[in-house]
Amino acid sequence: MKKILVTSFLSTFIFTCGWAQTNGNAPAVSDPHQGHNHGHSHGLNSAPDAATIQADPHAGHNHGNAAHGSNPPSTGAPQNSPTNLTPAAEVHLKNIRQLTFGGDNAEAYFSPNSKSITFQSNFKQWGVECDQIFTAPIDKLGKDSAFKPAMVSTAWGRTTCSYYMPNNKHILYATTHFANKACPPVPASNGAYVWAIYSDFDIVVADKKGKIVKRLTDAPGYDAEATVSPDGKKIVYTSTKSGDLELWVMDIDGKNDKQVTFGLGYDGGAFFSPDSKKLVFRASRPKTSADSSKYLDLLSKNLVEPTNMEIYTVNIDGTGLKQVTNLGKANWAPFYHPSGKKIVFSSNHHSKRGYNFDLFMINEDGTGLEQITNQSIFNAFPMFSPDGKHLIFSSNRNNGGGRDTNLFLADWVD
Question: Among positive and negative, which fits the CA dihedral 203, 209, 214, 220?
Fold first, then answer.
């Protein structure tokens, strides 16, 4: 996603699972929410330029300088050791290691054995025109700037929200390429911060060499933001098939498709709890008739304006819906702590100007809010490794003051 600052709107990039983006010239957002849809895709995936930072001290805590003085070129070779990438104030994160070094990289999720990741990137040096899906063993990333992860997607259309299947051999993701092999256009902002809800997105399963072995959705409308339950039995995703952006759950083979949420508003970026019995997700809930009318009008144009989002949980059968946060602004990209009792998410609620996204952690009952990151103006898409030892996330830190969003891996300290 993208975000716009005081004087400019930064690059174009879509993250459907965590936070999506728009393409420019929107006014500064006082209450941007969430983001790239899954987390969807989106939010602040670009860093401000140096002039913006100098003009606006709120634009970001040591932005581009998480290593306190070390700023490698955005596309250069790794220059930082794990030690000097770990700010002392980020007490839950130890031995932070940068995994990518150029472009916009986000929504990185672990394989079931915790040894590999799948993620989306628009890094031009990897030969892509817009977001495509990549996978790589973690021990191969961050060491050699010439290393190129294997591309899982077809390189056609736009892709988003990839996730490993239980067999560790296949990857789930959404793509628009069945309708058009070209990258779909980013919508004009027309003075507002909006995300495109591409009606051509469908969910597929591919092997790690890129061969699509199954298409799970083919109905008209948006189907994306899919993730898999830890027990390997279910898939949750967001769809417009009922006329609104709602959560749906199906069996791992695509059968027994059932709607889970029903409230007006954008429900997305869902992940299962460690016991596979609940979902955590981000949602917008229009509060007035005018808000509802605006939401429905944008939805009819395959757009959403995601400036107010909160974190919710619900049982996978649709019962027990609960609002976890009530912070205002954009709260999104949630993921359950390995204990199943806490949730890590991205938020700009603490920002005076609407941007500056950090990771926070909160108890499932909405108590005990704690800030996890404090470096750069964008930190999002957190995911714990299945073994609970590591946290992977996307951040604008350590990018030389540029616009790149990279992947970072940290040891987790409770």
Answer: positive
**Does residue 64 contact residue 402 with C-beta atoms inside 8 Å?**
yes
State the total domains in the chain. Answer: 1
Give tens-digit pLDDT for 169-200.
Answer: 999 999 999 999 999 998 876 677 888 999 99
Q: Quick one: which of 194, 248, 188 has its CA closest to 219?
A: 248
Cα–Cα–Cα angle for 21, 22, 28, rounded to 5 degrees = 100
**Contact between residue 96 and residue 409 where contact means Cβ atoms under 8 Å apart:** yes
DSSP 159: E
Domain presence at residue 298:
yes
Helical H segments across 185-318, by residue range: 289-300
Q: Which two tokens stand for residue 328?
A: 């205002």
How far is 227 from 270, CA to CA, in rounded Å?
7
Residue 51: helix, strand or coil by DSSP? helix
Q: Is 107 inside a domain boundary? A: yes
The CATH code of the domain that includes 353 is: 2.120.10.30
| C-alpha–C-alpha distance, residues 375 and 373, integer Å | 6
Structure tokens at 348: 């700009």
Position 398 in a domain: yes
Our measurement of the distance from residue 407's CA atom to the centroid of its chain's CA atoms, rounded to an integer in Å, reads 11
Assigned domain for 29 exists = no
pTM (2 d.p.): 0.84
* 3-class state of residue 412 by DSSP: strand
Tens of pLDDT, residue by residue over 243-289, are: 999 999 999 999 999 999 999 999 999 999 999 999 999 999 999 99
Q: Is the dihedral of CA 78, 82, 86, 92 positive or negative?
A: positive
Alpha-carbon gap, residue 94 to 71, rounded angstroms: 20
